[in-house]
Each structure stands twice: as C-alpha cells, then as structure tokens.
Amino acid sequence: MERIGNLAEMFIEDVNKEDSMVVELFGNVVNFLFKAILVSGIPFLAYVLFEFASLF
C-alpha cells in the first residue's frame, strides 16, 4: 500500500512539472490516435461517397 502511495506522489509531482513526462506521453498518444483515425477515415469517406454516387 505504501508503494502505491509513493507511485501516486511521484505521478502528481511529475504532472505538476513544466516538462512532465506523463503529459508529454499522453500528448504523443493523442496525436498518434488522431492521425490513425484521420488516415483510416479518409478511405472510408471515399467508399461512402462512391457508394452514394452510384445510387443516382
């Protein structure tokens, strides 16, 4: 239990720093997920537009 408390204190101290490793890691993960969704969404959008155009 004491070890979890120490980890929580280290986490809080790191998040409160100006150059936090945790915040930088979350930023990198969010940027990667945004790019992945964007790249996977473009072909899907093209498919939907192609299917919609073939209805007419």
List the topology elements.
Elements: H1 2-16, H2 21-53
Keywords: Membrane, Transmembrane, Transmembrane helix
Transmembrane segments: 29-50
Short description:
With 56 residues, this protein is mainly α. It has helices spanning 2-16, 21-53.
What can you see in these coordinates?
With 56 residues, the protein is mostly helical. It has one domain (2-53). It is built from two helices and no strands. The protein has helices spanning 2-16, 21-53. The longest helix has 33 residues, at 21-53. The protein is rod-shaped. The termini are far apart.
Q: What is the overall pLDDT average?
A: 92
Count of individual beta strands: 0
Distance linking N and C termini: 66 Å
Helix content: over 70%
Which regions are unreliable across 5 or more consecutive residues at pLDDT < 50?
Answer: none
| Backbone CA Rg | 21 Å
Strand content: under 5%
Count up the helices: 2
Structural class: mainly alpha
Transmembrane segments: 29-50
Keywords: Membrane, Transmembrane, Transmembrane helix
Keywords for this entry:
transmembrane, membrane, mainly alpha, 56 residues, rod-shaped
